[in-house]
Write a structure and sequence with these properties.
CATH class: Alpha Beta
Shape: elongated
Structural class: alpha+beta
Number of domains: 1
CATH architecture: 2-Layer Sandwich
Order of helices and strands: HEHEEEHHEE
Number of helices: 4
Strand content: 25-35%
Distance between the termini: 33 Å
Strand order of the largest sheet: 2-1-6
Helix content: 25-40%
Radius of gyration: 17 Å
Length: 127
């Protein structure tokens, strides 16, 4: 499962950083294009960190996907795109697949950049 792999990567990063500093809190920022099932991710991550980092608080935030057309300069969000459940599922596993399904709502160009909302980032708060 996609969420298991992400939880495993986050867990490894938390463990590695615990060796360097006393981490109090980790903010997990999930790009909307990842289309993560947050409840599943939380469950996996809690299980993985239970013995390793029992006192570390985990906060979650979803970063909205924002695109900018290279042709006309228009900026829009994923919510402005009408995607089917199948298309969202494809993007869930391969976020760059968004290029196959999304076009600029203003000029219909498929040439756009992803400004935000891709990947997973961690912010560590130390004591």
């Amino acid at each position: 499962m996609h969420e298991w792999a992400i939880a495993e990567a986050i867990s490894r990063e938390v463990e590695a950083n615990l060796e360097k500093a006393r981490i109090r809190r980790v903010k997990v920022i999930l790009g909307e294009l990842q289309n993560i099932d947050l409840d599943v991710l939380k469950q996996y991550l809690e299980m993985m960190l239970r013995d390793v980092a029992p006192n570390v608080e985990i906060d979650y935030e979803t970063e909205e996907a924002v695109f900018k057309c290279r042709r006309c300069g228009y900026t829009w969000t994923l919510a402005d795109s009408s995607l089917s459940e199948e298309e969202r599922e494809a993007i869930h596993f391969v976020p760059e697949a968004v290029r196959a399904y999304v076009k600029c709502p203003k000029c219909s160009s498929p040439d756009f950049e992803v400004l935000r909302g891709r990947g997973v980032r961690l912010i560590f708060e130390v004591e």
